[in-house]
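Hi, here's the filled form for the chain we discussed.

Project: internal
Contact: R.S.
Residues: 385
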Amino acid sequence: MSRVKISEYRAKKIIMGDAYQGVSLRADAKTKLPAKGTWVAKVDQGVKKRMKQGLVAVGATSAEAKAAMTKWEKKGFSQFILEPLFPHEASEEQYFSLERVRDGIRMLHAQGGGIDIEAHPDAVKTYLIRSHDDLPNIARESGLPDQFLKHLIEIFDTHFFAFLEINPLIIRGEEATLLDAAALVDSAGAFFTNAWNHDDIVQVKLAQHPAERNIEELAATTPASLKLNVLNENGSLFFLLSGGGGSIVVADEAQLEGVGEEIGNYGEYSGGPTREETYLYSRVVLELLLASKAKKKALVIAGGVANFTDVKKTFAGIIDALTESADALRNSHVKVFVRRGGPNESVGLKLMEEFLKKEGLFGSLYGSNTVITKAVDDAISFTRV
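And the returned structure, exactly as it came back:
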């Protein structure tokens, strides 16, 4: 059993039924677009952040929508969705997601944020749905329509959904409009439901390395940003980086110091990931580090000064992963080098320092009053000796 992505078209059709007015289009089909109207055209192949990648055309005429899809087809995309434009204000956009977890269904909801939810992690509230009896209170606390929430949970359970993200979600009174949706289903559910089938599973290019694929799957279930590229499986420098600009500076420093070929991985965790998400991300990086055949290895935990990613929370997740691997890391003579700043910086750094010293993994540790490249410079010196 595995989680697989289904098309946005099928997810919305399951949820909204005949009320859904979208059209699914494929590059190899001769579907004729409506002659009139104002539309939203999108690539429908499970791609995240489509708007920011130029894979969405909003307020398009039929001719403009067709031109956009022709351009996307040249980039290798083959499946699209066309929907009537739903006029609204950015202030109306809400974030909503459901994910099946061990204790029930975890619901995330923010009344503001929409496609920019990563910049507003504090607005996201978490609820745990253990049974339908929890729904009235959750609906009242979240401000979501009671019937809408009940309907979504029923769909989620009946049709073997594992994850559902609606972003943006528009609520007007008791009416809910799904402007954008992403869904993962349990592949084993295909034997028990006729709401979706193999044809609805989007064909996404698989990452070249299993670690990259693991992070892609994790990233699909969170509004946070989690990215990973494996550069050298037998490298000596492995990174747990946070913040786009800061992570680039750290990696560039290694390159400038002439050890670019020793970088095992590049990527980042940002956008306010939870402790659990940071733990799962860190565990993948540590597995890469421990598998490396380099004679001397270092882990660099670094990043800029965060605006909203909680240093204490994310460091707790990293410590959880380090705890599991502490014996193996010591046996491999790995040292950990840290430079980080942001919310709860002093508490997070203290927790990390105490842990690393107790476990015999301490290399060096710095806060925001130290230049961002100091930790990686220390790590390079360590691996060169």
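Let me know if anything looks off before we file it.
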